[in-house]
Specification:
Layout: E1 13-16, H1 22-32, E2 43-46, E3 57-65, E4 68-74, H2 75-86, H3 98-108, E5 113-117, H4 119-128, H5 133-142, E6 147-157, E7 160-169, E8 198-203, H6 207-220, H7 226-236, H8 240-244, E9 248-256, E10 266-272, H9 275-296, E11 301-308, E12 311-318, E13 325-330, E14 333-337, H10 340-352, H11 360-363, E15 376-380, H12 383-389, H13 400-410, E16 416-423, E17 426-432, H14 440-460
Parallel strand pairs: 2-3
Antiparallel strand pairs: 1-4, 3-4, 5-6, 6-7, 7-17, 8-9, 8-15, 9-10, 10-14, 11-12, 12-13, 13-14, 15-16, 16-17
Helix pairs in contact: 5-6, 12-14
Length: about 450
C-alpha cells in the first residue's frame, strides 16, 4: 500500500518454467534445509489462493503458476502480480510505456542478458518521498532529475559476445551527465604506445564550463561555496577558471605504458589550449604551496626546468611527494610521468606515428557497427604482464600447481576496449568480448605483485 512516504525497496524475482516437476524438486530441496523455528520453514511454496496478505512479511514466498515462478519476501507483491497477470489482456502494462518499448527493442534483436531501470520513475518516487527544495535543486543542477532509463544488454553473435548499455535523458543532459562530449578523434592517445598494458581516455566539454557546473552545484549545496571560492583564489593569487580551467582543452588520457615494477610506468596526457599561461599558473601554485609549507615548517616543493634539444622538460619534486612529477608541454598537450625518460619516450611515440590509436590490432577491438571516434574508452591488455610476473624472482614462491593454475587462467585472456559515445540525449556504451566480465587476469595480478614485491625485498636484504 502506498502511504506517500519512503518505502523499502523489495525485489520481485520472476523466472520462466519450461518443464514439469519444479514443485516436487523445490519441496525436496527445502526439506533438506534446517529450520530454526520448529515446524515453521522460512521459505514457503504457495498457490495463488494461499498468497499471504499485505501484512505478511519476514518469510520468503515462492508462487508457482503455469509457466512462471515468482519469488518475494513480501506476499502483497505476489498478490498484485497474480492479479495483474489475470487481467493482462484487458489492461496495458509495461509494454505500452516508452520504457517498455525500449526493452522490447532489445528483445526483438535477441538478447542473452538484459538489465533495465526506469530512472525517471525512481526519481519521481524519491521526489514524492518528502518535499525538499534544496535537494530537488541539487538534483536538477547535477542533471539527475533528467535521467529517463538505463538499459544494459549482452548478446552472443556467432562466437563473439557483444555488450552495450544506454543511459537516456529527458532532453539534453545537464550537469555532470553533460560533461562527456560528442565522439571525436583522440590525439592524446598518440602519446601511448601499442605495447601499453592499459589506457583510459575521454573527450569532455570545455573544462571552463565543467568548472562553472561544479561551482553552480556547490553554490546550491548547504552553506554555499561563493565565499570559499573567493577566499581560495585570493590565497592562491590566481583565478581558477581563467588561469587554469581555460588553459585546458577537452582531451584527457591516462595509461600504463611500460614496466609495472619497481615504479609503474604511468603517464597522463591532457590537451592544453594555452601552454604559457598554464605553466605560469603552475609556477604560482608551487610558490603559494611553498609559502604555506614555510609557515608550517614543512619541506618545500621544487619546480625545475631544463631545455633538451629545444624541448623544455619540467619536474616537481620534494615536499614528501611519493614520486617525482615530470612533464612537458608539447604539440598542444601536457604529458606527465614519474620520470623524464618516460615523458621523452611518449613524445618519441607520437613523432614516430607508431601509436596505440593507430594500431591495427587496437582498432580491431572496436564494435564493428560503431565509428572509431568515441567520447571515451577504457582499454586493457593485462594478460602479458601477468604472464611476465610468473618469471619474476618473487613468483618463485608459487607452487607448481599454483603456477599451472595462473597460467590456465591467463592463457585465453585477450585485450578489450570499452567505448562510450555521447549523444544529444543519451550516452551509449559498447564493447566486444568479456568487457563487462571479471577478467581472470585481474584476479591473479594483485597476488603476483605481492609475491614479487616480497621476493624482491628478500633478495635485496643484506
Amino acid at each position: 500500500m502506498d502511504t506517500g512516504g519512503p518505502q523499502r525497496v523489495v525485489p520481485l524475482v520472476l523466472a520462466e518454467v519450461r518443464k514439469p516437476g519444479l514443485r516436487e524438486f523445490l519441496e525436496g530441496e527445502l526439506a533438506r534445509l534446517p529450520s530454526a523455528e520448529g515446524d515453521h520453514h522460512p521459505v514457503r511454496i504457495v498457490d495463488e489462493g494461499e498468497v499471504p496478505g499485505p501484512g505478511a512479511e519476514g518469510d520468503m514466498f515462492i508462487l508457482l503458476r503455469p509457466g512462471l515462478m515468482a519469488v518475494s519476501v513480501r506476499g502483497a507483491d505476489l498478490r498484485r502480480l497474480a492479479a495483474r497477470l489475470d487481467r493482462a489482456p484487458a489492461r496495458p502494462g509495461l509494454e505500452s510505456t516508452p520504457f517498455g518499448a525500449r526493452i522490447g527493442e532489445a528483445y526483438a534483436d535477441g538478447v542473452g542478458l538484459l538489465f533495465a531501470a526506469d530512472l525517471q520513475r525512481i526519481s519521481a518516487r524519491v521526489a514524492a518521498s518528502g518535499a525538499s527544495a534544496r535537494r530537488d535543486e541539487a538534483l536538477h543542477r547535477a542533471g539527475i532529475d533528467g535521467l529517463r532509463y538505463l538499459v544494459f544488454e549482452r548478446k552472443q553473435i556467432a562466437d563473439e559476445a557483444r555488450t552495450q548499455a544506454v543511459l537516456a535523458f529527458e532532453g539534453a543532459p545537464r550537469g555532470i551527465v553533460s560533461w562527456l562530449a560528442a565522439p571525436a578523434p583522440m590525439g592524446a592517445l598518440d602519446f601511448v604506445s601499442p605495447a601499453a598494458l592499459g589506457a583510459a581516455a575521454f573527450v569532455a566539454k570545455s573544462p571552463a564550463l565543467i568548472f562553472d557546473d561544479v561551482v553552480s552545484m556547490a553554490m546550491g549545496a548547504p552553506g554555499g561555496a561563493g565565499d570559499d571560492l573567493a577566499a581560495l583564489e585570493s590565497k592562491l593569487d590566481l583565478h581558477i577558471r581563467e588561469d587554469l580551467a581555460e588553459t585546458l582543452g577537452g582531451e584527457f588520457a591516462v595509461a600504463l605504458d611500460g614496466p609495472l615494477l619497481p615504479t609503474p610506468a604511468w603517464k597522463v596526457v591532457v590537451e592544453v589550449a594555452d601552454p604559457a599561461r598554464l605553466q605560469s599558473s603552475l609556477e604560482v601554485l608551487v610558490r603559494r604551496a611553498n609559502d604555506e609549507a614555510t609557515r608550517a615548517g614543512r619541506p618545500a616543493l621544487v619546480l625545475e626546468s631544463e631545455d633538451v634539444g629545444g624541448q623544455a622538460y619540467h619536474v616537481i619534486r620534494g615536499a614528501r611527494l611519493p614520486v617525482e612529477l615530470h612533464y612537458a608541454l608539447a604539440e598542444g598537450y601536457l604529458v606527465a610521468a614519474p620520470s623524464r625518460a618516460l615523458v621523452m619516450r611518449a613524445l618519441q611515440t607520437r613523432a614516430s606515428g607508431d601509436t596505440l590509436a593507430r594500431s591495427t590490432s587496437f582498432r580491431a577491438l572496436f564494435p564493428p557497427d560503431r565509428d572509431v571516434n568515441v567520447s571515451g574508452l577504457v582499454y586493457q591488455n593485462l594478460g602479458p604482464i601477468v604472464r611476465s610476473l610468473l618469471d619474476a624472482p618473487g613468483a618463485g614462491s608459487l607452487s607448481a600447481e599454483q603456477r599451472r593454475s595462473v597460467d590456465a587462467l591467463t592463457q585465453d585472456t585477450r585485450p578489450t576496449v570499452l567505448c562510450a559515445y555521447g549523444e544529444p540525449s543519451a550516452v551509449r556504451v559498447a564493447g566486444l568480448g568479456g568487457v563487462f566480465d571479471l577478467d581472470t587476469s585481474d584476479l591473479v595480478l594483485p597476488m603476483l605483485l605481492e609475491r614479487v614485491r616480497r621476493g624482491t625485498s628478500r633478495t635485496a636484504a643484506p
